[in-house]
Structures are given as structure tokens and as C-alpha cells.
Design brief:
two-stranded antiparallel sheet; 46% helix; TIM Barrel; eight-stranded parallel β-sheet; 10 strands; alpha/beta
């Protein structure tokens, strides 16, 4: 039986910039803050990490430095997905070579692949590496919702670990649990659904919220995993306004503003993402203060 890549909180870490280059000293500080707060896995170069505007060379160095800074305290999950299977394979092999512990591979976007193409894409990527592969389903961005039938077929592949499920349909987690093996693991991709997802069998969350409140996100997720749903639900509700504000505009615009407000200037998002609008900024500031 496969073991989950992680349980609990995995932070989809922002990529800090200084003068439009990756700020590696701040990256080290952010990783230390995560591990000090009980986070034991991070995704680098995911959606929150602005993967679309990072070059391959930047991504590989990000994975390499992340592994160097994290040592054995934190797993580094490398975001290597693209809408080209060949490109995804190339980057996945490079990520494995520099020490990534696992891969997060988003559904191919823009192409809008059919189910057979989705299966072939993920199977080809998995066969190119030995480390675990987590599928990433986020139809609001990719334009494709991976069918559960495709998950079921992919679950037979030894190093496909499960899925980061970021569709808005919470019932899809039930369908996955019904139709896929127990060792095809699910992680929530939605911070507003962590506790409900865990109650349905998810092993945790790949989180944006934990950039800002890592310790509190760990407390909430661990409480849910321990079956203390009264505590977990209270924390979910208490952080609800912040979660809403972190998604008031497209991720990662609000979370980068939040990081600056709490004392970690990670620089602006790269174009074509602009700054957070003034009214959303003031609202976010009022919540954090």
C-alpha cells in the first residue's frame, strides 16, 4: 500500500522577489518560519509561487535551494506541470535530479485535453521519474476538470500518490473515495474547505492561508485529522474572513500583499499580475490588524 506524501499542511509557498529576481535569503527565512510552525511540506513553483512567470532555470534553482535550506525538516514538492507533456517531463526529471521529494503536476491548461489525453499525459510524466507525483486539479484555471474515471486508472501507477483537488465541488471528494483505492490520497486545494475535506477523508491541504498563518493552519488541520471537529470547525470559521480576503482577487496577488503587511516583503507579483486594488488592500489590512 502506498504511503501519503504528507499529512496535514503543505504550504504553497509564495516566491519572494527582489528587483525581479528570486530573493533566496528571504526564501530561506520563509522556509524556516514554516518549519518552526510545524509545516513539514511545501510546494515551490506552484500557482501561489507564480510558476507561469518563472523560467525553467529559476524553477530548478528554486527547487535546489529549497532542498538545501529545508534539509530533512521539510519535504520539497516541485511544481513542474505545464500544457506540454514533453516540457513537463523535462522539468520533472530536472526537479528529481536536484533533490525534490515529490512533484505537483497540474492538469494541462489551454489545450483542454480529453480524458484519454489526460491519462496519457500523467502516465508519461510518472514513468519519467521515480519520486511520487501528486496530480493537481484546478478547473477554474485550467479549463479542464479531471474526471474521477481518470483518477481511478492513474491510481494503478505506483508513483502516482493522489490529487490536490481544487475544484469547488466538495462532493467530488466523496466520488473519489467511492471509486478509487484507499491509497489514492486526496489533499484539499481550497482553504475554505479544509475541515469538510478532511471529514470526507482528505489527508490535509496544500494551502495558501498557511503562508500568512502557518501555525494556526496546522492547528486547524491537525485537529480535523485527529477527529476533533469542534475545534477544527471553530478555527475554520474564525479564519474565514481572512481566507475570503486572500482570494478577493486572483491568487497570489492578495497573499503577497498580506505577506508584506505582516513584515515579509516578498516583492510584487510579476506581470501580467498587477497590485492588489486599494479597497481590497484596506480590507485585508483591517483583518490582519
Amino acid at each position: 500500500m502506498k504511503q501519503p506524501v504528507f499529512t496535514g499542511v503543505c504550504t504553497a509557498l509564495v516566491t519572494p522577489f527582489l528587483n525581479n529576481s528570486i530573493n533566496f535569503p528571504l526564501l530561506q527565512q520563509l522556509l524556516q518560519r514554516q518549519t518552526d510552525s510545524g509545516v513539514r511540506s511545501v510546494v515551490l513553483a506552484g500557482t501561489t509561487g507564480e510558476a507561469p512567470t518563472l523560467s525553467d532555470a529559476e524553477k530548478i534553482k528554486l527547487f535546489q535551494k529549497g532542498k538545501e535550506y529545508a534539509h530533512s525538516n521539510c519535504k520539497i514538492i516541485a511544481g513542474t506541470g505545464s500544457n506540454s507533456t514533453a516540457h513537463t517531463i523535462e522539468l520533472s526529471i530536472a526537479a528529481e535530479a536536484v533533490g525534490a521529494d515529490a512533484l505537483l503536476v497540474v492538469a494541462p491548461y489551454y489545450n483542454k485535453s480529453n480524458p484519454e489525453g489526460l491519462f496519457a499525459h500523467f502516465a508519461a510524466v510518472a514513468s519519467s521519474v521515480k519520486i511520487p507525483v501528486i496530480l493537481y486539479n484546478v478547473p477554474s484555471r485550467t479549463g479542464v476538470d479531471i474526471p474521477v474515471s481518470v483518477y481511478r486508472r492513474l491510481s494503478a501507477i505506483d508513483n502516482i500518490a493522489g490529487v490536490k483537488e481544487a475544484s469547488t465541488d466538495i462532493t467530488k471528494i466523496t466520488k473519489i473515495r467511492m471509486l478509487c483505492p484507499d491509497d489514492f490520497y486526496i489533499w484539499s486545494g481550497n482553504d475554505d474547505q479544509i475541515v469538510p475535506a478532511v471529514s470526507l477523508g482528505a489527508k490535509g491541504v496544500i494551502s495558501v492561508l498557511s503562508n500568512v498563518l502557518p501555525r494556526e493552519t496546522v492547528m486547524m488541520t491537525d485537529a480535523a485529522l485527529d477527529g476533533d471537529f469542534d475545534t477544527a470547525a471553530a478555527l475554520q470559521c474564525n479564519m474565514g474572513s481572512l481566507v475570503e480576503s486572500l482570494f478577493s482577487e486572483v491568487n497570489p496577488i492578495p497573499v503577497k500583499a498580506a505577506m508584506e503587511l505582516i513584515g515579509f516583503d516578498c516583492g510584487p507579483c510579476r506581470l501580467p499580475l498587477g497590485p492588489l486594488s486599494q479597497n481590497h488592500y484596506e480590507h485585508l489590512k483591517s483583518i490582519l490588524s
